[in-house]
Amino acid sequence: MNKITNLQQITTLPITSTLQEQVKTILTEPFHDEAETQRAWDELQCELWFLTSISEISAVVVDDIERLKRALTYTEFEDDLDY
User: What predicted TM-score, i.e. pTM, was given to this entire model?
Assistant: First the structure.
């Protein structure tokens, strides 16, 4: 599981560079630029969680499991990525 708190960390995700760009575009879309996006993330303490397998969930600490359950139950938005 990867926890991203900084937009620059998106390049560390185990996905293609094309998908990394798509993710960054989706996340920065509501803002003027990447810097404004990062300021909002810092202020709101945003995290992007990237799960690579279901087995990783068992390694997640209890507080994070509750947050993950809440996120899955109350999804704010979903966006499809290209392959």
Answer: 0.74
Selection from 43, 55, 46, 65 nearest residue 7 by Cα: 46
pLDDT above 70: residue 68? yes
How many C-beta neighbours within 10 Å does residue 44 have?
8
Question: What are the distances in angstroms from CA 56 to CA 2, 49, 50, 52?
Answer: 10, 11, 10, 7
Q: From CA 67, how far away is CA 62, in angstroms rounded?
A: 9
pLDDT in tens, 4-43: 999 999 999 999 999 999 999 999 999 999 999 999 999 9
Helix (H) or strand (E) holding 50: strand 48-50
Q: Distance between CA atoms of 60 and 63, rounded to whole angstroms?
A: 8
